[in-house]
């Protein structure tokens, strides 16, 4: 059974930082691509960042230069370091994984709220 468990969300002031974590189980972490997506109220889910099994990263235009995705194989964990947060970053952030057989899985999401 595949499980993706996100943590690290919360309330932060504009300009602040948060680090999200997603612990994966039930997958072969080393061969899976990992990613973070977000969904704000009334909007479609959008790409935040992805990282391949080989470590290649890709970012959504709105977060480039502010967010960093990384992965730790020993802990089967993917991280999202978020700096210089803006109110428009407020959303539910979802962890995602995809394997070489095109199976795709989602976590339950963690709320990030950027507000003064």
Name its key features.
116 residues, mainly beta, 0% helix
Question: What is shown here, in short?
Answer:
The protein is an all-beta fold and 116 residues long.
Write a structural description.
The protein has 116 residues and is mostly beta strands. It has no helices and 11 strands. A hairpin with a 5-residue loop joins β5 (46-51) and β6 (57-59). The mean pLDDT is 96.
Helix content: under 10%
Q: Main beta sheet, described?
A: 7 strands, mixed
Number of helices: 0
Terminal Cα span: 40 Å
Average pLDDT confidence is: 96
Give a topology summary.
Elements: E1 3-7, E2 10-12, E3 18-25, E4 33-39, E5 46-51, E6 57-59, E7 67-72, E8 77-82, E9 91-98, E10 104-106, E11 110-114
Parallel strand pairs: 2-11
Antiparallel strand pairs: 1-3, 3-8, 4-5, 4-9, 5-6, 7-8, 9-10, 9-11
């Amino acid at each position: 059974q595949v499980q993706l468990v996100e943590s690290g969300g919360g309330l932060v002031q504009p300009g602040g930082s948060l680090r999200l974590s997603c612990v994966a189980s039930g997958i072969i972490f080393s061969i899976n691509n990992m990613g973070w997506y977000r969904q704000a109220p009334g909007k479609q889910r959008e790409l935040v960042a992805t990282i391949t099994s080989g470590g290649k990263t890709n970012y959504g235009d709105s977060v480039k230069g502010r967010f960093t995705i990384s992965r730790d194989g020993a802990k089967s964990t993917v991280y999202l370091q978020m700096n210089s947060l803006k109110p428009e970053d407020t959303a539910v952030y979802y962890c995602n994984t995809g394997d070489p057989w095109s199976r795709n899985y989602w976590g339950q999401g963690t709320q990030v709220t950027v507000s003064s």
